Amino acid sequence: VTHSIPACIGSMTINSKQLDKESPVSIFAVKKCYETVQEGTFFDGSGFAALVKEGYKVRSDVNISLEFRTTAAHGVLLGISSAKVDAVGLEIVNGKVLFHVNNGAGRITATYEPRVANSLCDGKWHMLQANKSKHHIALIIDGNLVQTDNPYTQSTSADTNNPIYVGGYPADVKQNCLTSKSSFHGCLRNLTLTKGQQAELVDFSRAFDLRGVFPHSCPGVEH
């Protein structure tokens, strides 16, 4: 067994002595148990999850889908970059969702601005789909489609080779398609990256670096 148990543990005794959970000698990625809990991954606004240590290659196409729930108007959702300029990025800025892509010739952005300000930051679940197909990009939020023109039609491949960062990224890591440094505070679920016919559901418990992220549960009501 190489991964922690996604569960709540209480009232543990060893040799008839009850363990004091309130004052542990050390603690890592353990949070209180919630009375009401939802499926998903909780981000406490302080860190990030890092996946695919060997580097994820976006290249010509990728479809990113996820559900998010937050009360914050700012936060990084996802970033995949390279050492050069090629990158993709998803973020919430001032209550809007931005999908950035740079295939090497310049950054283009699809922006979804809700009709009612901050209605995406209402603590309810919202569906997001971001699609890059060669030089075309599209963003679908709760069924609403946003497309943007790309003047760099000859440049079609985002040659990324860095890990996937979700919910934020380390201070020493360069992200060419993110404008925000704010870590996401809220819950994500059903994060899937699809290339062609191959869909990959992200399991956050398999992240190689997890800071302020709790993979298998979301508080039903945030406090």
UniProtKB/TrEMBL annotation:
Domain Laminin G: 38-218
Pfam families the record matches: Laminin_G_1
Entry superkingdom: Eukaryota
InterPro entries from the UniProt entry: ConA-like_dom_sf, Laminin_G, Neurexin-related_CASP
Name listed for the protein in its UniProt record: LAMA1 protein
UniProt source species: Nothocercus julius
Name of the gene: Lama1
